[in-house]
Amino acid sequence: MRKEDLDALLIMSFGGPESQEEVMPFLRRVVAGRGVPDERLEKVAEQYRYFDGISPINAVNRDLQARLATDAPSRWLGDRVYLGNRNSEPFLADTLAEMSKAGIRSAAVFVTSAFSSYSGCRQYRENLAAGLDKAGVDIDLRLVPKFHDHPLLAQIWIDRLAEVLPSDQSTRVLFVTHSVPVSDSVKYRPQHEALAARVIQGAAEMADMAEPPDWRMAYQSRSGPPHQPWLEPDIGEVVAEAAADGVQRIIVVPIGFLSDNLEIRWDLDVTAGAIAKEHALDYVRIEPPQNDPRFISMIYELIEQGDGIPCRVGCCPNPRQELHTVGERADD
Questions:
Q1: Where are the domains of the chain?
Q2: Residues of the chain predicted below pLDDT 50
Q3: Strand partners, 140
Q4: Which of 93, 121, 82 minimizes the C-alpha distance to 326?
Q5: Are 295 and 323 in contact (CB under 8 A)?
Q6: Considering only the top CATH level, what class is 3-16+55-145+306-329?
Q7: At what angle do helices 293-305 and 151-164 cross, to 10 degrees?
Q8: CA-based Rg of the chain, rounded to a whole angstrom?
Q9: CATH architecture label of 151-289
């Protein structure tokens, strides 16, 4: 994408509640159209209420928005960096209407998800198309490509892991990401495994270790009907397994996430942390990479390198129905 062809940058994210009153409306929006009863949502709501109904993700993304505006190379965007969410304020359609009113006619779109999957890619592109329709505006939205294999993303993880690797204790590294249905994992799982292998090797070299430490992939935040297969093993099972194997120290790397969010805090800090404590394990959880200054540089590199149409038609298909999207091309 040529910078001179872009009027603005739009950050698109999942969103989250910021008060107790927002929790249930937020969760209903997350599962809209799936027939999930409030009784099931109430169980999830307990996790949010544990943290006073506040997800950290909105504050983290507002900080990203401010840093992108401040640190933009050559100040080519100035303050024209916008934030729109799928499930909470500022809602995407409202942001698009605001952008149109400000005279924005073309914008790069950075989705806060590095990996390819329906929920992490195509669903956001469906949301963008629906947001344009709802707002009744015409903005040329050009998507930043997926970046799970970008060297800067890997290097941030490598640096953060290397800082805590040296230890006299028996250590196992657990790379964790959000579980998805097995049917949606054809590209999703190998992308995570490739990044994890790159990070563990790089961190071991940086920490002057003769060989990389033992490591595992684990998954968290499984949802959906019980009969539907999702990626396993669960992080809790892997923590307990480490204790049974005589491991003394575990390092948890939430490699599937870019920023702090409620799922990390609940599934990793509260639930997995409690299992580690029960088994007298030393438990270390690495911070995600979005707050690193290099993350800003990576976004602008991706904008310059991408053509705005990163996906082919039919990739990461919608499991329920086909919907209009933006940012896809027919196969060559």
A1: 3-16+55-145+306-329, 151-289
A2: 332
A3: 106
A4: 121
A5: no
A6: alpha beta
A7: 160
A8: 20
A9: 3-Layer(aba) Sandwich (3.40)
Calpha distance 192→42 (Å, rounded): 31
User: Residue 178's CB: how many other CB atoms inside 10 A?
Assistant: 25
Segment (H or E) for 30? helix 23-30
Instruction: Give pLDDT tens digits for 121-172.
Output: 889 999 999 999 999 999 999 999 999 999 999 999 999 999 999 778 899 9
- Pairing mode, if any, of strands 140-143 and 171-178? unpaired
Query: Rounded to whole angstroms, how far apart are CA atoms 219 and 231?
Result: 7
Residue 74: its pLDDT value, please?
58
Specify whether the CB–CB gap between 209 and 165 falls below 8 A: yes
Q: What is the DSSP string of 56-113?
A: THHHHHHHHHHHHHHH-GGGSSTT-EEEEESSSSSBHHHHHHHHHHTT--EEEEEES-
Question: Tell me, what's the pLDDT at 117?
Answer: 85
Which residues partner with 176 through β-bridges?
218
User: Rounded to whole angstroms, how far apart are CA atoms 150 and 320?
Assistant: 31
Contact at 8 Å (CB) between 284 and 242? no
C-beta of residue 213 within 8 angstroms of C-beta of residue 137: no
Residue 226's pLDDT is 80
Under 8 Å between Cβ of 174 and 239: yes
Task: Show the tokens assigned to 329.
Answer: 């091309």
**Are the CB atoms for 30 and 39 separated by under 8 Å?**
no
| Tokens linked to 89 | 């304020």
d(Cα 255, Cα 185) in Å, to the nearest integer?
16
Q: Give CA–CA dist 234/176, Å, rounded.
A: 9
Question: How large is the greatest C-alpha to C-alpha distance in the chain, in angstroms?
Answer: 61
Compute the Cα dihedral for 202, 203, 205, 209 and give only its sign. negative
CB 124 within 8 A of CB 111: yes
Q: Which two tokens stand for residue 294?
A: 């290099």
Q: CA-CA distance, 288 to 262, in Å (whole number)? A: 13
d(CA 19, CA 24): 10
Equal CATH topology for 3-16+55-145+306-329 and 151-289: yes
